[in-house]
Amino acid sequence: MGGLVFTERIHVKFAGGRAVEAPLTLGQINTLEWLGDDTRAGLYRMMEWAVTVPDGTTLRDVTDTLAVLVERHESLRTSFVTGDERRQVVSGSGQVAVDVYETDAAAGSPVAHEEVTDLIAALQAAPVDDVADSLFRAAVAMHDGAIRVVLIACSHLAVDCESLAVVVRQFTHLIDNPDERHAGPLTHQPADQAAVEHSARGRRRAEASLRYWRQLTSRMPQSLCAMPRPTGGDERELHHDYVVPASGGEGQPLGCWLDSPALRLALPHIAARTQTTLPMVLSAAFCAVLSWRTGVSDLVFASLANNRIGREMHDYVGTLAQDSLLAVDAGTTSFDELVRRTGGATLRAAMHGLYEVRLLQELQEEIGDRRGTLFQRDCASNINIFFDGEVRPAGPPEAAQEALSRTALRWHIPPYFRVLLLMRVIDSDGEPLLGLTTGHADLIPAAEIESLLLGIDRLLAAAATGDVDLRRMTEITGLTPVVRGPEWLRVDNCWIELPEVQAVVDEAVQAPARVFAERGDDGRPVLTAYVASGGPVRTPREAHRACLGLLNGRYSAMAPGRYVICARAPEDTGDPAAWRRQPVLAEGDGREAQR
C-alpha cells in the first residue's frame, strides 16, 4: 500500500455555459430528502470512481478534461436553494478543486485496491474549498511526475451511479482524444428535465407511479425476509476464499461478492433462450432463491429504476434513479417462466419510478396506518449497470456447470445502511458482478448470505443447458426452506412472530397487555391486543400510533389489527377468555378513521 502526501490543490476554471435557475427535478427532491433525513448520510454524500490514464498523461490533460466535463454537464456546477422556494441554480462560470498527492507506490506497479481506498479517504477528509464547487471534486495520485490514478468524485445531488459512469466514460474518451475537448452543443440537462416533469405529461407519469405504489404497497409483506433469528448453533458450514470480516451485533453491515465464472458463462445462454436480458435473468435467480428460502411466492420489493426512458436520456448527467417496486409472482415450477415473469415485472417497475418522494411517504404512512405495517425497504435490488445489446456466450452451456468449482466469495464490510438484504449488480471489466449485502448481520449472517449466493450460482449453472424445475431447488442449490415455529403466523400477507408483536405492544402501552390471534369475520387471523388501563395510552388510536412508532428495525412484527382497553388485567393474562370478561373501556382498530 502506497502512502499519500498532499502536495497541492489546483483550481480548475470553467466558463461559457448557460446560467439558469429552475425548479428541482423529482430526483433532486428525492436525494435532498434522504440526505437530510439520514444522520449517517455523510458516508453517501459523494460517489467516487477511480480512473487509470495512459502513460504520458499530464496534469494539464486531466484539468482541461475536467473543465470540459463541467461545462458540458450543468449538474456538475449546480447549487441548490432549499426552504419554501426550492430550486436549482446553474452557474455559468466558476472553478472546481483538484487535490494532488504524491504516492510512494512503486513506479510501474499495478494500482492496488488499497491505493484507491487511501485516495478516497484522503479526498473525503480534505476540507471543502469555499472557492470551488463542492459537488464535483477530483484527486490525483502521482509518483515522480507520472499519474497513477485519477479519482473523480460527485455529489449524489449531481449524479446517480449511471450518470457517474457517463462522466467517467467521457473523461476517458477526452483524455485519449485531446482534439475533442470541447463542451459541444447543449444536450438535455436537469433544468430541462424539471420542465418536462412539471408539464402535464410529466405530472401524469408521476401520478401513475403513485397509483402503482399504492396498489403494491397495499399487499406487500411487512418484511420479505422475516425469518427466525439465527442462533449460535447454525450447522451450515461456511466455505470462504477469504476470512469473513468480523461483524456482529444489531445494525452491523456485512457484504459479499460472488466472483463466478459459472454465472458469467450461464447468463448469455439463459437470456438467449428466454429472450430476455442479463439483468432480468439475475433478478429472476434472486427471486427464485428468495422465494424458496422464505416460502413467499408473491414477491414485492424495492428495485432501482434508472428512469432513462427516451433517447435524450442516454448520456444525461443528473440524479435520476429512484426506487420502484418489483412485483413478481414466483408461483411457477419453471425457471424459464420465472425469468419471463421477472422480465415483464422489471419493465413495469421501470415505468413507475418517477414520483414526488414526499407524496410517496404520505401514501406509505396512510397504508401503513391501515395495515399496521411500516415500509422499511427491507429487501432491495440495485442493478446499476445495464448491459446493452446481445451478449455472446463465451463457451458451451455445459461449461457453466464445470466452472462452479472456480467460484470465489469475496467478503467486505460496507458502509452502514438500513436495508436488511440488498442484491447489487455492477460492471466488473465488462462482466456482471453480483453481490449481497445486509445492514443487519445479526439477522442475515454470513452463512445466510453465502447459501443465497451459492444458490444463485448453482441455479444459473443448471439453467444454462435448459429449463430447471424449481421444485428441485434443494437438490440443485443446497438451499432449504426456512422452518418457522408455531409462534409464527401469516397475517395480511406478512409473516409475523407473535412474541415480537407482544414485545412491541408491551413497550408501546407500558401496562399489562396480551396479544392473541383471533379469527376475524372473514375467517382470517386478526391480531388483537388486550390492554389494561393505567398506562400512557387510553384509546385504541393512541395504542395503535404508539405501536407503529416502534416498528422500525423490527422485521417480524406488525401492529395489531384491534385493540381492547380493559379496566384491569385478569389474574391469568395468558387466557383470552379471562380478558374478555373484564370491563371494556374502549375498543376498535385504532386506525386513522377512528379517532
Describe this structure in words.
- There is one protein chain.
- The protein has helices at residues 26-37, 59-72, 113-125, 161-176, 190-197, 200-217, 261-274, 278-294, 335-350, 357-371, 398-402, 446-463, 473-477, 498-509, 540-548, 576-580; strands at residues 4-14, 20-22, 46-51, 78-81, 87-90, 94-103, 133-143, 146-155, 254-259, 298-305, 322-329, 379-383, 408-412, 421-428, 431-438, 488-491, 494-497, 513-519, 525-532, 562-566, 584-588.
- With 595 residues, it is α+β, with helices and mostly antiparallel strands.
- It has a 7-stranded mixed beta sheet, sandwiched between helices.
- It is globular.
- The model is unreliable at 37-44 (pLDDT under 50).
Percent helix range:
25-40%
Rg calc: 27 Å
Give the neighbour order of strands across the main sheet. Answer: 11-10-12-14-15-9-13
Specify the structural class: alpha+beta
Distance between the termini: 63 Å
What's the total count of β strands? 21
pLDDT under 50 segments (min length 5)? 37-44
Alpha plus pi helix count: 16
**Mean of residue pLDDT?**
90
How would a crystallographer describe the biggest sheet? Answer: 7 strands, mixed
Global shape: globular
Strand content range: 15-25%
Protein name: Condensation domain-containing protein
InterPro entries: CAT-like_dom_sf (IPR023213), Condensation_dom (IPR001242)
Region (Disordered): 180-203, 576-595
Domain Condensation: 52-376
